[in-house]
Amino acid sequence: MNSQLALWFLIIMTIILVLLWFKNHVKNKRREKIFFFPFPEAFEQDIIDHVPIYQYLPEELKQQLKGHINVFLSEKYFQGQNDLKITDTIRVVIAAQACLLLLNRRTNYFPHLKTIIVYPSSFKNPNAHQDHLGRLGESWVRGPVVLSWKDAEHGASNEHDGRNVVIHEFAHQLDQEDGVSDGTPLLQSGHIRTWGKVLGKEFRSLTIKAKCKRRSFFDHYGATNAAEFFAVITEHFVEQPKTFHRKHPDLYQELKKYYHIDPLSWGL
Ligand SMILES: [Zn+2]
Predict the structure, then answer these.
(1) Which of 6, 47, 108, 226 is the S-S candidate for 183 at Cβ 3.0 to 4.6 Å?
(2) Closest to 183 measured CA to CA, from 231, 238, 237, 112
(3) 73-108 pLDDT tens trace
(4) Residue of 150, 137, 142 lying closest to 90 (CA atoms)
C-alpha cells in the first residue's frame, strides 16, 4: 500500500513539474517573439527626448533595451492616479529606465510586479511615502511600484546627478525578487561572499558618515537600511560611474558583476 501511495505521489509530482515546465516554456517563447517586435519610431523618439542616458549606450545595448521594453510593456499594467492620463510617453519613459537594469543577463522581468501606479506629481499624494528629496516612489514586495510622473521625468532628464527615482524603485524590485527586501538580490553562486563583505563594509561606512553628517559620495538616504543602500548605490552606479569607480572601486566591481553592465565604458 505504501509503495502504491509513493508511486501515485511520484506520478502527481511529475505531472506538476511537466505542467510548470510547459507554462514556463510557453511564457519564454512568447517573450522571445515580443522581444523582436518592431519598435515604434515614436517610442524611440520619446526615449531620445526624455532619457538622455540612452544616447550613451552602445548600439547593441540600445537594441537589447528596445526588446526588453517591448516585453515589459506587454506584461505590466500602468494605472494613472489623480486624473493622470497614462500616455505612451509615460509608459515608454518609465519602461526604458526600468529595463536599463535588465541588460546583458537572464531576466524574469520583475516577475512579482503587475501594476505601476503613476501620480502626476508628489504634491498631490501626501499619504504616500516620500524620501528626503520629496520624491514620490514606492516598491512593494509582490505589490505595485508607485511613482510620480514629475519625479520620474525629472530623474531621467539629468543623467549625471546620480538621482533617478525609477531606477531606485526598480532596484528595489530586483532586491525583492527573492521575497525579502534586504539589499541582497538573487546572486550567482560564488558571488554571495564578496557581495556581503564589500556591501557590508560600504554600508557601515556610509552609516557612520550619515550619523556624523559628514560628506559622502553616496546619498545619505542609502544609510537608512541595507535595502535603501542597494537602491541608492544603483542610482549612482548607472548615472555617475566615473566618480563611483574612482572612489569605491570594489563596490563598483560588485555592481558591475551583478548587473552585467559597465556604465563607465559608455563614456558617461
Ligand atoms: Zn527606496
Answers:
(1) 226
(2) 231
(3) 999 999 999 999 999 999 999 999 999 999 999 999
(4) 150
Find the 103 Cα to ligand 1 centroid distance in Å.
21
- What is the 169 CA–ligand 1 centroid distance (Å)? 6
Q: Residue 160: which of 267, 2, 19 has the closest Cα?
A: 267
Question: Which residues of the chain fall short of a pLDDT of 70?
Answer: 1, 123-136
Q: How far is the CA of 130 from the centre of ligand 1 (A)?
A: 9
Q: Following DSSP, what letter does each residue of 194-223 receive, concatenated? A: HHHHHHHHHHHHHHHHHHTT---SS-GGGG
- Rounded to the nearest angstrom, the distance between the alpha carbon of 6 and the centre of ligand 1 is 48
Residue 221 C-alpha to ligand 1 middle, in angstroms?
8
Q: Is position 55 within any domain?
A: yes
- 254 and 162 housed in the same domain: no
Distance of CA 38 from the midpoint of ligand 1 (Å): 34
Same domain, 98 and 161: yes
